[in-house]
# Entry
Amino acid sequence: MGIAERKGRERAEREQRITAAARLIAESEGWSAVTIRRLAEEIEYSQPVLYSHFENRDAIVAAIAVQGFGELAAALREAVLGSTNHWKALESVAMAYLAFAREHPALYEAMFTLPTGLRFAEADTKPELKDAFMALAAAVGPARADVEVATETFWAALHGLADLERSGRIRQGAREARVRLVISCLVEP
# Structure
């Protein structure tokens, strides 16, 4: 292995340590506890080392959000496997999406609430974001001629449900009925 390859690998490992520490802190104490100073202490690097990898805290949050979109895409693709029909595929994807938001609250917050500078539906959109959209579109696709608009609407509905559930503003026991209603609006007669 050459020096450049080794340095590149070491850099990637440091970045992974930084984002992993940030995720752990955010999950246990919330994003307000994630600071450059705190991360430097946690992983035993100086603050300048962290700044050599990430411009600021928002850049760390963005890197974590990108990881989250990759994880979400994988969860959505997994949810479709074994679905016997289109309705079941949509239902499985919707439930997987809501479960992801519930099981990873800090990660979901990084993906959708905190400032990241990530761009959606643009030429420079990160592949992980596109992958998450395409995982939803694959489930929506067979039902609609207007796949992009339908997928955006499905995503918006799921995101709204996830946020309302996470904040405790809607009844937890009605999730399946709400998902069925959203799907019935998506599937063209």
